[in-house]
Design a protein that fits this description.
mainly alpha, elongated, 224 residues
Length: 224
Amino acid sequence: MKTTSRAAAPRRLPPEERERSIVDAAVSLAGESGLEALTVRAVAARVGVTPALVAHYRPVMESFVAEVFTTIVAAERDEVIASYDPSVDLRTNLLRLIETLLDDSRDDVAMVWVQSWALGARNEALGARVRTEMDLWHSALEDLIARAIAEDPVLRENPLQVDPDSSAWMLLAMVDGMSAHSLVHWAPRDRADLARRTLSAVLDVPVIEPVQPCLLYTSDAADE
């Protein structure tokens, strides 16, 4: 008797479990191969279901890519910010944070960030999420720096004041640039040393007060 074999049908799951499996698979795939790897077929193959089922749960792929991006980078931000230790000084905390973000083990997240900047130029849903996440990173860093200044009498009285807003911008720019460079193995031999130097430059530069405009008076005006 001749028999034919059929591929096993995917196990039926409750809708919430199936949805979770699709999101988890997409997050895993993006972590391994970047956001560009996210297609309906690729996610379906990872889950072991039909592309139609993936499309049923996530009908707009551009929005799904944005969702996956947010899931990945928000988890990293929460983890890194939660590691802030209020018992040590600001410089030590920021150096630990930078070294953590620049660690080679986080190249998968760096890849997601780098691809998000390029893809976000054409995918408005992703671009909006990227802007939001960058704002959240800046706000989190700015808040940590401001809190450390408020709690440290030395920093409060130091004439070389630290500006939380600009400091957060400069630190993020350095981390983003070095993370992108590391993906193509173009980076200084000692990234930790460069991080320390950059941190010193950011924290030890005095705030330049704006020059007040001078009013010039003519002799006639002075007589009046």
